[in-house]
Amino acid sequence: MSHATHYLTFSNWETFRAIQISQSSFLGMIIKRKLQTGVTKENLKYCVKLLHVKFDPYSYHLDLLCEFISCLKTVDMEYMAIELLKDEVSEMLEKLKKLQKGETKYYRLSEHCNYFIECIFIIYSKLYEVEPGIKYFQKFYIEKDPEVKEYILLDLIESFATISDWLREYERNINKIDYRESLQEKYESLKNA
Q: With the C-alpha atoms ordered 61, 168, 71, 141, is the resulting torsion angle positive or negative?
């Protein structure tokens, strides 16, 4: 089904809309069924591998990641998922070293790698361990412009952590990064509130 969102396989490009279910809900059903057979490292690894699907261009990638995370019912599962996701990121980073930066494959793989890094950050945030999530994001997220990278991180912090985490991260880099005007205005507004 995910393959068909990028290649005309059926009579409709919008395969998930055609069956009246979102890609994230469909993935959630598969993960829940797999984990019903037992929450083992192998089963969770299988579920993590499912995140390598082609993302439906008619939906937002965070919906898929959040659906995966919602299936992690215990703290142990969340920590196990972080480790398995980190393993996947390491593998993708190794593959990226063998590709040319201008290639389409490089772009797609780096984008997918970034999605896994965002997933790791969100799980850390859910565990109230925002700082390790930020450090991991800063170390591995693939973006050459530091301001854009910080903008993406601040957006994730705003969505999945606290205002104090957002302010702390902004202030940590205030002398290192020339923030865009919208972030400066948001900072002033949050600081004054």
A: positive
